[in-house]
Amino acid sequence: MRTCWIEDDDGSGSIAGAAAVVFVAAVLCAVVPLGAALAEVETLRGAADASALAAADTASGRVPGVACDQAVAIVHRLGVEMVSCTVSDQGVADVAVTTTILGIPVGAVARAGPPVR
């Protein structure tokens, strides 16, 4: 006489396999948005860097126009918002940008200008 209440375990491998597939799908559903968020953060940082460089180039006279207007144009093309843009008398541009990633506001700052002598 058997003491186990399960007389037959046919099909238990199918249940275990299905559980493994569900587990992997759940992990992917959690990881994919995080990967997309990391890509958005890098885009935000790139937007801050590019806009600071554009403002500094404009302030130095290499590019015609108004320094912060050039920075705002770059930021808007990259789909983020400008928080602040300042250019010092020495031509150093400080830029702050922001966006919302997964419902969380995220910001980045950058500085660009002539080399320090």
What is CATH's topology name?
Pantoate--beta-alanine Ligase, Chain: A,domain 2
The average pLDDT value, as a whole number, equals 88
Count, helices: 2
Helix/strand-derived category reads alpha+beta
Gist?
With 117 residues, this protein is α+β, with helices and mostly antiparallel strands.
How do the strands and helices of this protein lay out in sequence?
Layout: H1 12-60, H2 67-77, E1 81-87, E2 93-101, E3 104-112
Antiparallel strand pairs: 1-2, 2-3
Helix pairs in contact: 1-2
Tell me what the structure shows.
This protein has 117 residues and is α+β, with helices and mostly antiparallel strands. It has a single domain (12-112), classed as Pantoate--beta-alanine Ligase, Chain: A,domain 2 (2-Layer Sandwich). It has two helices and three strands. The protein has helices at residues 12-60, 67-77, and strands at residues 81-87, 93-101, 104-112. It starts with 11 loop residues before the first helix and ends in a 5-residue tail after the last strand. The model has no long low-confidence stretch (mean pLDDT 88).
Could you name the key traits of this structure?
117 residues, 3-stranded antiparallel β-sheet, alpha+beta, Pantoate--beta-alanine Ligase, Chain: A,domain 2, 3 strands
